[in-house]
Amino acid sequence: MEFGIAYPARLDAWKDLVRAEELGFSYAWFYDSQMLYSDVYACLALAAEHTKTIKLGTGVAIPSSRLAPVTAHSIATINQLAPGRAILGIGTGFTGRNTMGLPPVRLGPTREYMQQCRALLRGEEILFREGERERWIRFLHPEHGYINLQDSIPIYFAANGPKAMELTGEVADGWITVFSDAEHFSQDLASVARGAEKAGRSVDAIARMALTTTCLLQPGESPTSPRVIERVGPYAILPLHAMWEGSAVAVEQSPLGQLYARYRDDYIAKMQTPLDRRYLEVHEGHLIYLKPGEEDYLTEDLIRTSTLTGTSEEIIARIKALEAAGLTQVAVQVVTDGRELIEEFGREVIAKYQ
Question: Kind of pairing, strands 27-30 and 55-58?
Fold first, then answer.
């Protein structure tokens, strides 16, 4: 099992990563959400300059945010700073588009986008389209020290729906998914495997990362204590945001259905922002802090289901179950104090994981 650290992109995140390397974290992921956080490539560049071994990835780049040649150029520049350590994570867009009131990018254009990025990162020519124009393009100076195409840059795809997971199996080097239990992970991995089989690939060649956050409980501490809610709450509330956006599958049949209905009717419905701009208020604080009153919807079940909250023994047992089901990496997101999370998780989980 490998371990990663994830950040809502912050320019000063690099200050934590030297210690993260020492404590056994081998990946660092930075969210790409232009209306919420710092620029992802600026954060990656600073991290590349101040680290030696940790792999650095976008978590995730969205096709509509930048042209494929721009995204390929940006990650190849990071690869020049950190040879062989750059990863291009791509997704259809949750926060990056929802915070602009837009739905996810369709899978067809996303597939083409990934294929264009991959070809460019291999030094190949692609047929680039702009309206009715079509032009062949390639990087003209790949060996002059501006970008690095010599060290391979894996492409991971963030996918949670069945069709997106099959696309992962067909074209991606890695799969990024949200944290779940071993049973649900196994079911989802089967969708990735179907896509891989369709493309004549082995699912074993595809890296598999699950994203969550974490808090180690103190003796006698409740998972809904103020300290825990401050630590994991902004991440744990995420499923309710997703349900409001309609991007959660089968909301009505979800185990969280009743909790979401209460959140929608008693909280979101009372927001003052006009309906046509309500997404601006819903996503305020997204993954970094709770809006006043959101803590009332953080049940123990929601916290335990969506995050690695528990004793070190409980957390290790959950990760081992996922590893047995085929997971290859767990990444934990920094919500409040990055150094505290890194020290705690590194000492109590990574160091004890066997």
Answer: parallel
